[in-house]
Fold:
Amino acid sequence: MSIRKTFATSKRVLSQLSHDRRTLALIFIVPPVLLSILKYVFQGEPRFFGTIAPMLLGIFPMIMMFLITSIVTLRERSSGTLDRLMTMPISKTDFIFGYAIAFCLLGFVQALISGGVMLGLLHVAVLGGTIPTMVVAVLAAFLGTSLGLFTSAFAKSEFQAVQFLPAFIFPQLLVCGLFVARAEMAKPLQLFADLMPLTYSVDAMKQVTINLSWTSILTRDLIVVACFAIVALILGSATIRRQE
Amino acid sequence: MEHSVKIKNLSVTLGGHLKVLKNINLELPVSKTIGFIGPSGAGKTTLIRGIVGSLKINSGEISVFDMPAGSRVLREQVNYMTQELSVYPDLTVKENLKYFITMAGQSRKMSRDILVEALSLVDMTSKSDSLVSDLSSGQKQRVSLAVALIGSPKLMVLDEPTVGLDPVLREKLWNLFAKLSKQGTTLIISSHSMDEAERCDDLVLIRNGELVSHSSPKELLRTTGTKTVEESFLKLVGDKE
Structure:
């Protein structure tokens, strides 16, 4: 692995996005706008909004990075650039980690903006503080990036890549505890939720919201999310073949 | 005699049933411009992908400079231009080249010179800050070609490099290819254009996945008793059918 080539890949991905200002605006502006709308949707139940807003801060980076990564990687696979890169003296890890670093940075900036709006303008209380909130959000972005890299291998078109969002992410979203507490769900759904990474990402954000200090459950949740992301990254790397 | 590429009994079947290449045997010289000539769908790109190592070979073997195609060492010696655009449309010309120069493993010190040279060779210096998506298709093709010109490869494999280029630039590029081969680079250039074939030192004619002939243009014209490569091709194909 070459650090220079990894960072060159991250820089290249970020440069590509920097030329697409509309996409950047959507990445950074949509989450805080949605959070603001939600505040007024639940204006009669401010406590409920205070509970779900931080959880959404952990979900937005994952969903956005999943979508963007799967489409960008699919383009790379279908446009010939990946084919060309694989004939060059680079390792697959340079490519994969280059992507992961770029999108984690993007997730961090997104979380910073959304978190700033949530804490500063919408006055949502997160007892654990800003830094743990950012750590959870960046890990969620990392998870979304890894899953996007992996699932892009199974899509033959951008239409299919977009359809993977309802197929892979929405079921996790339904059972992660955002809408209904997991303990109140049917047993099979609880078991399914226990196996899904988004559950731990959302759970980690809950821990940060309700606890003043760093808890062992928060550590466990973050380790589980990181492990899922790393496994997805390794699987994603395996789907990039030099020979087809 | 030294060979750049040796292909033995190569057959490729895609999708489980489509025979794209049928028992190809070839030995290509070094420091020459070799043309893979044939109509669209003849199997040129598949053969090229085999040589650069991006095709899984099930039957037969391909070696490049006496190493199996796709070997790690070869990635530093072989430059490949795919038939697709294979550059990033949402980056500028300069950003694309800088990225591929780094990926090619060139030192930071050399990068600037390589960038300037590659831009100049394809006549794109004035467009270096333009986004690739804003360029014409011929200009995009030149950016893709500039990437293949990075560094000093022993073998350059160019899949249809002159498609969509104006005659003046095409002439300039063929002169460049001749210069590179004189300097010791082996060039494999695929084309479906028969009029470009005569500029090659060596011609490999392919049709329906089969090797029709392999010789120099002069030899080809002499053995077939024809005046152009196109006539030779038609004669050889006619003889076979």
About this structure: The radius of gyration of chain A is 18 Å. Chain A has one domain: 3-239. Chain A is about 80% helix and 0% strand. Residues 3-239 of chain A form one domain.
